[in-house]
Amino acid sequence: MSDVASETGVRRARGGGGATRRAERTAVSFETAKFIQRNIPNFEILNEEALQIIEYNAETVLEEIGVNFVENEAALKRWREAGADVRGERVHIPRGLARKLCSTAPKTFTQYARNPERNVEIGGRNLVLAPVYGPPFVRDMEGGRRYATLDDFQKFVKLGYMSKWLHHSGGTVCEPTDIPVNKRHLDMLRAHMVLSDKPYMGSVTEPSRAADSVEMSKLLYGADFVDQNTVMTSLININSPMTFDGIMMGALEVYASNNQASIVSPFIVGGAMAPVTVAGTLTQVLAEILAGVSYSQLVRPGSPVIAGAFVTSIDMNSGAPTFGTPEAAHITYGTGQLVRRLGLPYRSGGSFCGSKLPDAQAAYETANSLNMALLAGVNFMLHACGWLEGGLVSSFEKFVMDADQLGTLHHLAQGVMMDTNGQAMDAIREVGPGGHYLGCEHTQANFKTAFWRSDLLDYKPFETWAEEGARDTQTLAAERVKKMLGDYVAPAIDEGVRESIDEYVAKKKASMPDAFM
Known about the structure:
Layout: H1 17-26, E1 36-37, H2 48-65, E2 67-69, H3 73-82, E3 85-87, E4 90-92, H4 97-102, E5 108-111, E6 120-123, E7 126-129, E8 137-140, E9 144-147, H5 150-162, H6 184-195, H7 207-221, H8 223-228, E10 233-238, E11 243-244, H9 246-257, E12 261-269, H10 278-299, E13 305-308, E14 310-314, E15 321-322, H11 326-342, E16 346-347, H12 360-376, E17 380-381, E18 387-388, E19 393-395, H13 396-414, H14 420-423, H15 425-431, H16 441-446, H17 462-467, H18 473-487, H19 495-510
Parallel strand pairs: 2-11, 7-17, 8-19, 10-12, 12-13, 12-14, 13-16
Antiparallel strand pairs: 1-7, 2-4, 3-4, 5-6, 8-9, 14-15, 18-19
């Protein structure tokens, strides 16, 4: 394993006093905050009776209605051997069987980064934040909306690496459409491995591409290390309602058999792919989670898995998905309770919005979605920054806007400090009635860390703001994108390891003709 610490590229000015402090404020820093460890309670919306009803109904769905495992004879064989009633491609799972199989999945696991300081713990009271995943389009202020390219992809990886509050490099941060479909996974994975040293996700668009992800990871970490440790967390979507296709399950089989983590996640648009009611959707979500997670344990008992839920509602006039809605919050809170009762890590939430621009609609819907996920007890949040237009667009400006706001989740999760310093009795005694706290000893000792402060938003007086061009948040974000990309310094990597990765990519790409479908 190439356990090479990151080259931070921090530059410090020489000199004393104010010059040093100014240099520290403007220095290039690639600091990454540790994954969030919650010191606040989860919000629980369902009582015990409701939970038991939903759990009973979900097992009824599995037993009476069943789930489809299509184009996958190996999966049907595994289910028969486990005791399920398989009729064609429909699998009827006896009550209690799926829950029993799920019990072998770990409650928490470590995903290792090539820089050990970036390792993340997934599960328990932890929250790991990863960027947007999957959009075919990108948007920025200069170029507008357009199809994504590999250059765009690499820029997003660099931004993710440099974002303090983002713990994970993610996966398909955008879809590089200038590279053939059958080859682009190689370039994407190489970018995550070389341009960042944070944890990353593997390819799931075809089982052989998942296998490539495993082989490339062995080049980066060493084969023995990958055999014994989890270095990838990859997204396995369920085709709701209740259908598990051969491509997704084939990728899951590759990852589970290699001890790599999968996110088993229903993709739910309420009213289209699930019932319009919260309880009905929760029943279907739980049934799909039980079937998908239990199948991962049929492949390899003890393989790491995250139970996911991507849930939104639908606009009944246009048919378009809606985000930041109370119904989505109810389902996200409820799913969190159900997943915790299974003893599994939980994936949900993100910077969801339906807006076409990083505007007020985007801000409202994103804020609702991010705070909902924090309170729901989510352990792995995909799409934490950069999401626009219902997931069709990765926005450069919104990426840095969202990444900045993720800092609020870190501070909210700390809870209320009740130690001697937090109680501040010395400050109250020192100031007394009618005084002020600006100059007191307690304020001087705590002012740098007392309040979270945005690195992006404008807090200046009106006159200063006007003199500087009356810039709105999108304009500030565009300037920040340019500065971050200009300041980017790649993390150190062993040259021999990088060359072996490059050779693998080149050899694989040369071995097959281009395919764009």
